[in-house]
Amino acid sequence: MRKKVFEKTIKATIINIIVALCFTGAILLSIYLFLGAEIDEAVVTVSRYAITKEKKELPPTTISEDNVIENYPEYGTQYGTIEIPRIDVNLPLYYGDELNLLKTGIGQSPLGYFPGEGGSIILMGHNFVNMFRRFSELQKNDTITLKTTYGEYTYKIYDMQIVKETETDKLPIQDDKEILMVYTCYPFNNIGYATQRYVVYAELVK
Questions:
Q1: What does pTM read for this prediction?
Q2: Which residue among the candidates 185, 199, 200, 202 is catalytic per the annotation?
């Protein structure tokens, strides 16, 4: 008799736990759907303050007439800004692709080249509301400007693609032409890990 009562108690407890978890999940999902933009903005604000405190003096970065950069930016530091007028983007540009950098601005992959070197440049950013959430509004011939500590470079968009994260051939590294590739997670309203990327391709025009 006691065994049956014990088993019923255990089953009832497990069911209560499952119901509580489902209820909590539903509440969290509702909060994100209604306050997702505000949460994103709060995270970015806090992270930007944390990284700002870590800034330190570095040797000036320069570039010669034959596109040779001296004193490359240190990994993890801001070396410029990215401006995309069409979607009102004006964000810090960091050398690096770590999570703490992408919370506050746009990161540059160390696999590619730097602006002005004449090769492929790969940038990435979150689809937060005040970052790349409006990426789908970009059109061909829109401009992207990278203002670095050693020069200003403007690129014109010529293509946009939705690719799988495994399609690395869609972000080719080449050294014969300066191509800017900027991507973010897709879909833009995705909750959880996204397996697709929205990539914008632009060529140097100024």
A1: 0.69
A2: 185
pLDDT at 55: 45
89 assigned to some structural domain:
yes
pLDDT of residue 45: 42
Looking at residue 204, what is its pLDDT? 94
Q: Is residue 49 part of a domain?
A: no
Residue 126 annotated among the catalytic residues of the structure:
yes
How high does pLDDT run on average in the chain?
78
Which domain range does residue 144 map to?
Answer: 62-204
Give me the CATH number covering residue 73: 2.40.260.10
Q: Which listed residue (73, 92, 93, 126) is catalytic?
A: 126
With a cut of 70, list the residues of the chain below it in pLDDT: 1-17, 19-59, 66, 190-192
**Per-position DSSP letters for the chain, written without gaps between them:** -HHHHHHHHHHHHHHHHHHHHHHHHHHHHHHHHHHHHHHHHHHHHHHHHHHHTT----PPPEE-TTS-EESPPPTTSEEEEEEEGGGTEEEEEEEB--HHHHTTSEEE-TTSPPTTSSS-EEEE----TTTTTTGGG--TT-EEEEEETTEEEEEEEEEEEEEETT-GGGS---SSS-EEEEEEEESTT--S---EEEEEEEEE--
22 noted as active-site residue: no
Domains: count for the chain:
1
